[in-house]
Design brief:
The complex is a heterodimer of chains A (about 425) and B (about 425).
Chain A: E1 2-9, E2 13-20, E3 25-32, H1 37-61, H2 64-93, H3 103-126, H4 134-149, H5 156-171, H6 179-189, H7 194-205, E4 209-216, H8 233-244, E5 250-254, E6 259-264, E7 270-275, H9 284-293, H10 298-306, H11 319-331, H12 336-358, E8 365-368, H13 375-389, E9 394-395, H14 403-422
Parallel strand pairs in A: 1-4, 5-8, 8-9
Antiparallel strand pairs in A: 1-2, 2-3, 5-6, 6-7
Helix pairs in contact in A: 1-7, 2-3, 2-5, 2-6, 3-4, 4-5, 6-7, 8-14, 9-11, 10-12, 12-13
Chain B: H1 9-31, E1 35-37, H2 45-50, E2 54-56, H3 58-67, H4 71-80, H5 89-99, E3 115-119, H6 125-136, E4 141-144, H7 156-178, H8 184-206, H9 221-229, H10 236-255, E5 260-261, E6 264-265, E7 271-276, H11 284-292, E8 296-301, H12 321-331, H13 338-351, E9 356-362, H14 366-369, H15 372-383, E10 386-392, H16 402-422
Parallel strand pairs in B: 1-2, 1-3, 3-4, 7-8, 7-9, 9-10
Antiparallel strand pairs in B: 5-6
Helix pairs in contact in B: 1-9, 1-10, 3-5, 4-5, 7-12, 8-9, 8-10, 11-16, 13-15
Chain lengths: ~425, ~425
Amino acid sequence: MNVALGIDLGSTTTKAVMLDEDERVLGRGITNSRSNYDLAAQIARDEAFVGARFELLRRELNDDAFCKRLEARFRRRQHLSQLARLRETAMRETESERVARIATPLRERLERIFDDMETDAHRRLVAPKGSDFFRDLANSAFSAAATRYADRDVTFEDLMSVFDKAIIQVENTRLDLTFESNIRAALADCGGDDAQARAVDRVVATELNVIGTIGTGYGRQRLPFPKDSIRSEILCHGLGAHHMFPRTATVLDIGGQDTKAIQVDKNGIVTSFQMNDRCAAGCGRYLGYIADEMSMGVHELGPMAMQSTRRVKITSTCTVFAGAELRDRLTMGQRREDILAGLHRAIILRAMALLARSGGIDEEFTFTGGVANNEAAVSALRELVRENYGERTINISPSSIYTGALGAALFALRDARNRRAAA
Amino acid sequence: MSESAHKEPSQLRQKQMIADHFARLARAKQDGKKVVYTFVPGNLTELFHAFGVLPVYPEINALQSGMRQKSGAYIAEAEKLGHSEDVCTYVKCDIGMLKSGNIGPTGEPLPEPDLLVLSYTGCFTFMKWFELLKEEYDCPVVMLHVPYQGDGRITDSMRRYVVDQLRTELIPALESITGTRYDEARLQEALALSARAEDDLVAVLESAKHRPSPIDAYFGGVYYIGPIFTAFRGTQAAVDYYRDLRAEVEDRIAKGLGPVTPDGVLTEEKYRLVVEGPPNWTSFREFWKMFYDEGAVVVASTYTKVGGVYDNGFRHDPERPLETLADYCHGCYTNLNLPTRVEMLARYVRDYDADGLLINSVKSCNSFSAGQLLILREVEKRTGKAATFIETDLVDPRYFSAANVKNRIESYLQMVDQKRRAA
């Protein structure tokens, strides 16, 4: 079947969306952008293919519960392959001259850590969590186990240093995590019957013929695509948001590096936009920095801010100043919850200024980008929209992080159609 | 600019003219010439020629320092002296240059002024700038107050007010430093030469109405205005330069050629833009490339009117020597009110058959940047064409974020493209 792909190479995460010819989403993929954009794009693309094949299987079988179980098994297989590679790489690291002094006890502890990580894999994958990325999952599991096994001979730092070296190597190799290579084992894991096996075979045999790919996002210039296959993320976010919510007139996208306020017409075509200048103040990266300052995960910030009872007024959205202000406030004994609530409001205030400059907020208003997943940011946005523009329908899709990639995939599909029409 | 850049013959000639002027300045004291420091908008160059006085334009020095990658160090020097980050970067660049030995852009020393002539047309920072220079030099200052065109027109009393200041303050000051009597016939001669060059300049700028445009009226335009906005207005050298430039441009029209860019002649004109705001000087070539790489040609700009608006029919008139100087000062683009600027930009979009308006807003310039968003909305409304907003700075290299600017320009052009296809 014919499919189109959109790839959004963001500063923090890289996303891919695959559409069928009816503009329906077949699959999505996401990974952290690391500093290797090419690889990140390939991995996100691979993941979108996996997602697409699962979608095809759902269409074949019409059995959601089974598909869910099968996918969980499949994800576990993927995770274990990555873990095996991580173990292998870590073990190789122990041969380095640098750790020769403690090589034997180090190897022994690493074996125990990885054994634990393998045993825990299932629990880790089903636990509610902030991140799906192997790096984050492995990091928290490894450091938890390392705390248990560290002692005077082999310190926690010794262990983490091996992990840090190994994870970079694993992250920068492309493993075979495809549907085709792993699905049969996953099917065996959950004891699939013959009919299910035949359906899997049909899905594996289905050719996904990519008729168009468009790249977008912060790193789009780095994609090995011809110039006419690159589209600005502003246009992609506009079109993606329109596809998700067809009555969208105004779009706010807060990504890792940029904040964009976009106005679109009834066809999803951008009519005006404003974005932050060279400074990434008040973007997703700002939250990442605050999380680091507070030794928390970025996904923990929103829930904590929601516990606030008395919001602190934060005056700066400058990442560096806010860090200083944060420490100031903490020293003065103010609660972390209240400070965080203030920080979230500060981000949204900055976004409100961009929205005003782009032409205000019209009905309907769609909020996209990674920060749209943060409940405290959303709550601050609702409050400020009401204060400034009155009641507005605010759309937030659970897959809002894919908006740019979705728009890119739509452009890819439309370009392919136009090419066909012209031929 | 690197030596490998393609240059038009007129550009090479102009480079020589400017080098000669700086050489004359370097020799001024030994040649017994008097020197006046003054500003471009509202400059009274013909009057200085009538007295045989050499003019120095600090903001031209600053932009030249920017293009020669020297402004960063000068600005740092000024900031060390306590000028804050928000101060106009032209001012800081000039002060820094002064404090670093006052070596001009061509590497030759600049003479100290015998007189500071402050005609602060449209820019109030000029006044503070000369206040700083006054501290440095032991010389008289004449302040020429030119009323703002608040109502969008020049009244008789405004004209009389400026003429009176010329008669009672500036002319006596020039007589006093030179020891020469004011000779109106010499002024008239210079004014007649101005008018001839102005005719040819207008023909050059209006050549952009052709398709394809033979010139870029912004990036190329800043070269075209060079001589007439500075020391050469009212000279035979300027008359010759503009006559030849016009012939060069007419030749390109006859051959159907596009503008000359640093990478050669632009072969395909895909977008025609009107630009408001000065260019960024520190990354001038990189900035320009972002346009011509996309096939975008600037067909009209307001920046090329800051030292005189001539396409509205104004010419220096030797029959009314002082009155015409007063009219000139009043009429510079920076002295026009917002409705007049909006009207001018909307007219450019229509007359030059442009795809839209791009505003380059300057971070450190309040006088010029205030109201630009309002201008943008209004021009958009009146022309129905898309407009966009980018932010850079004049000569502070820290303020040019290439990725961000490129992103906005590309997004804008793709938006224009999409609009066209939808139409």
